[in-house]
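ping. complex inputs:
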Amino acid sequence: MEKQEYLDLYYQMVVIRRLEERAAELYQQGKIGGFLHLYIGQEAVSTGIISVRRPEDRVITAYRDHGVAINCGISAKEVMAELLGKATGCSKGKGGSMHLADVSKNFWGGHAIVGAHLPIAAGLALGDVYQNQKAVTICMFGDGATNIGFFHEALNLSKVWNLPVLWVCENNKYGMGTAVERASAVPEIALKAEGYKMKYAQVDGMDLMKVREVAAQMIEEIRSGSGPQFLEVFTYRFRGHSMGDPERYRTPDEVRKWQQDDPIGIYHNFLLQQGIATEEELQRVIREAEEEVEEAVRFAEASPEPAPEDLYKHVYVSETC
Amino acid sequence: MARMTMREAISQALWEEMERDPKVFIMGEEVGVWGGTYAVTRGFYDHFGPDRVRDTPISEAAIVGAAIGAALVGLRPVAEIMTINFAFVAMDHIVNQAAKLHYMFGGQMVLPLVIRTVGGGGRQLGATHSQTPDAIFAHFPGLKVVAPGTPADAKGLLKAAIRCDDPVLFIEHATLYQLRGEVPEGDYTVPIGQSKVQREGRDVTVVTYSKMLDTSLKAAEELAREGIEIEVVDLRTLRPLDMGPVLESVKKTNRAVVVEEGWKSYGVGAEVASRIYEEAFDYLDAPVKRVAQVEVPLPYNRTLEQMALPQVKDVVQAVKEVL
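pong. complex structure:
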């Protein structure tokens, strides 16, 4: 990997972190409505995995999607504008925080019904198989999604049809406020893949380089025809499930302990220790990322609201067909 | 024109579309080796092969969900849900995904998807296998809901649905597969979202669709013998609903009966009657009458089941009541 690539991954993680910190402020000011699920603490997961995809590889995720959107190449401007419900948002202000997407960047959303995007992911991969494309579909979801029927139907179908899907479970220990071991008969989530004779791996999701390494290998095996594989990533969200989470289900000590493993901090130290970048260089990257986020906030705030007639657009491609 | 059954017309539409466009493929339970539970896809597996005629597990959410995904990346899947009663276990993917993705992502996602399914009672299949819940699906903007009542419309509408860039729920009726009718030959489509007068008459407008079209046309024959001429308007598409021919007819006859197989409460008849009141109230000489299923889960017993389903005599009686 070239130096610039290392720095770019650092840049992406800082943009996500800063963008979400600013989003939380804008939410408190009432400028962002609905739900806002922050990815803070989990940035290394999507940054690592998506950094090893090829452009033809498809990405689809759940509603904690800001980081994935940035990693897939949606600009901070378009993400922030979508959060503010503006016409310039990546979903034209109609989707909001949970429904970011840009199909031109092969990012198929942001899906807010837990587990419902897993069968859709199988279908994206089916489309590639049908058209003889060597693409891999990367489908990300939380630990909570592994207890719903959609998960099992999708994993089963993907194996029966040998579909090129990398199933990525981001295990952040809680489905909303319910701990994994209180919700799942098999708390070792990766073992669920065994029920479908699917190859699986587990990785420390706070360490970008480890995530990258494992994901790269799995994606290339899938591309070579291994069929679907399953990756469980151990991670942690530093913020609540959504805004206004009283966090009765975990202790401040637990959160502080995980925060010592901040994925950005770990990667920062890695870059220094490996002599890939100097502290000054990383501080410059941080300033650039912060500037991009501030520019995104200015852009989003100055952007127009959707026009009243947009309310009626896009119900159908065509009323008559 | 060729005379054929509804089953043959639907099968022909599918076959022709698969021959015409390699992006069209079928997936569902028993569509392949078995040849389709209602024999609609018999012979397809041998001709088109397992990649284009895909047998699935009994896994409706995966069937509809995967069809959505394949449609998003440019294919034209025809997903079969064996009966509409099983569509409830795929409800999220039909009404929360298929119906919403185009809108919710600002128009960038396009789903040229057809979900073929079979509804209706009258075959002694009991309460869970005999429903006509068409109105539930027609409730959701973003979905198109089509339910043909003649072989010609079945062929033309299915071909239109497959070519349509929007998700279409195509509801066939379990007891109509043997219905015969004239079907235009060759490439032939019927636009989605257009109601049609299937029989002209001056006295009462009868609005209906699917199986109840056949029932209403039989009632029309009976009434004609008594000198009563009903005009039968076939909705054909429940969403988007084309009220044009209905209102035009009501303005002529000044009386209307709506006939549906599903339950009356919150049903198609409720919607059509409301729209007649909203848009043609001054033309009415009598309140709109609704004929629908008795509000019970359908029983197995043949006599009880037939008592619950709308019959020719019910339509005849309703027409006489508005005269």
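Residues 138 and 239 of chain B are 6 Å apart (CA to CA).
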